[in-house]
Amino acid sequence: FSFGVQTQGRTAAQALNANAAEMRRVIDALRGAGVAAADIQTTQVTVSPTTSSDGQTITGYNAINTVSARIRDLGASGRVIDAAVAAGANQVYGPSLTRSDRTELYRQALREAYADARAKAQALAAASGQTVGRALDMQEGGVVGIPLMDRATGAEVAQTPVERGTQSIEAQVTVTFALS
Prior knowledge:
Blueprint: E1 2-9, H1 12-32, E2 40-51, E3 58-69, H2 77-86, E4 91-93, H3 102-127, E5 132-148, E6 166-179
Antiparallel strand pairs: 1-3, 1-4, 2-3, 5-6
Helix pairs in contact: 1-2
């Protein structure tokens, strides 16, 4: 998730100082809700002028600070979100859900894709009276981590609901086999 604080001030320094104080409270709340310090990272700090409706006069300044927080226990997500908002976060983005074991799942999908390609080649070769030999060439192509929403597998959270969904790990291979 990402949590942001947006503040205004008459000067850039006032806006940034107010923002820093608010963001410190948000970061403390994230840590207090169980997010490890190593899982919190600043992703954006901006200060920009605000202008009058005609765009000619600077009327103040807007400051934004955003941090990403990696929440490893999805069941705690609602509690973490609620704590950050209660501490002053007025921007919340996410989640961006990923599996920690996606590399191994992708490798398994590659193995299965190869086995499927070989089985199809054997069926075609048998139909023509030939046998499949060794693989001469292999090309990998695929997609890792396509989110498929499945509300039935949602996590139980305190207040703000966060659904885990499922992710599809797919692999595609093109294999050229020797025939004999």
